């Protein structure tokens, strides 16, 4: 349903654009009909392996640039793997590619990467961004969206992000903070949606020196007030700064010609959240 909504919006934008484009804008290359074109002649026909290479080589020769040497097999494998799934090849995949001396060796690698779940996870994140899958209808209309399902759908891209950071060896030095604009009440006093909730708010952090599996505080059964070990927003900010290697008491900045702290005059580091 979300993809359909995206295409519907894009289609509506195209209908509006048809009435607003100027003649000059209509000449933009992406609006032109596709026409068959003969590949240009080049001075080095041996380098080009297909018609696309000929177009690239013609542009390079026009600028006096010589093509770089062909990449070795491991470099080629790493480029394809990082580009398509965002992860490096495993040692087993590298050994198999090096051992495959057939002309279709690289083609088989690309087919394998395109068929892998990681390919869908990597590029699906771009669609999720376009669909704004985790957002509500805005302001007082939250009940119009299936928020329970949308919350569950955030698990996949979040897990993919953390898995990607860990696979690259970056999770220990990257602090991931997941929160929102504000908390929400379980009810609304006026009309649709739910009110802002200043008494209960959920944030989680991962990597960057945080301790795994720790839960600090708890709201009541309907998610309204924090009733157990409440954490002030200044405590959260102090903890984030600590994970970044900064002491919130010693960090100062000028605001309206006055020296101020990012946590005002309060805030304590949540020690239980630090590894």
Number of helices: 10
* Ends apart, CA distance between termini: 41 Å
* Percentage beta strand: 5-15%
Oligomer designation = single chain
Question: Approximately how much helix is present in the residues?
Answer: 40-55%
Shape field: elongated
Rg over CA atoms? 27 Å
Q: What's the order of the H and E elements?
A: HHHHHHHHHEEEEEEHEE
Characterise the protein shown here.
The protein is mainly alpha-helical. It has a domain at 157-273. The protein has helices at residues 2-20, 23-26, 51-62, 73-85, 91-99, 105-114, 117-131, 147-153, 155-167, 233-243; strands at 176-178, 183-184, 196-197, 204-206, 218-219, 226-228, 253-255, 258-260. The chain has a two-stranded antiparallel ribbon. A two-stranded antiparallel ribbon has the order 2-3. A two-stranded antiparallel ribbon has the order 5-6. The longest helix has 19 residues, at 2-20. Mean pLDDT is 81; it is low at 1-18.
């Amino acid at each position: 349903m979300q993809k359909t909504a995206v295409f519907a919006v894009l289609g509506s934008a195209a209908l509006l654009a048809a009435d607003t484009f100027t003649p000059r804008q209509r000449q933009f290359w992406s609006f032109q009909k596709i026409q068959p074109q003969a590949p240009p002649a080049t001075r080095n026909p041996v380098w080009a392996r297909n018609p696309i290479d000929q177009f690239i080589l013609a542009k390079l020769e026009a600028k006096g640039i010589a093509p770089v040497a062909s990449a070795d097999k491991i470099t080629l494998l790493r480029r394809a793997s990082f580009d398509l799934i965002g992860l490096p090849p495993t040692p087993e995949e590298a050994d198999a590619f090096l051992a495959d001396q057939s002309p279709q060796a690289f083609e088989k690698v690309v087919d394998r990467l395109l068929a892998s779940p990681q390919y869908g996870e990597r590029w699906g994140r771009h669609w999720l961004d376009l669909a704004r899958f985790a957002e509500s209808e805005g302001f007082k209309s939250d009940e119009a969206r299936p928020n329970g399902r949308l919350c569950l759908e955030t698990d996949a891209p979040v897990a993919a992000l953390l898995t990607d950071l860990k696979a690259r060896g970056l999770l220990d030095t990257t602090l991931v903070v997941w929160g929102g604009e504000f908390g929400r009440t379980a009810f609304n006093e006026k009309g649709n949606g739910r009110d802002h909730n200043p008494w209960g708010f959920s944030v989680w952090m991962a990597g960057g020196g945080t301790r795994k599996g720790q839960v600090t505080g708890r709201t009541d059964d309907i998610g309204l007030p924090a009733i157990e070990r409440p954490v002030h927003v200044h405590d959260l900010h102090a903890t984030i700064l600590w994970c970044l290697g900064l002491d919130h008491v010693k960090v100062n900045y000028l605001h309206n010609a006055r020296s101020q702290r990012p946590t005002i005059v309060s805030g304590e580091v949540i020690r239980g959240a630090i590894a």
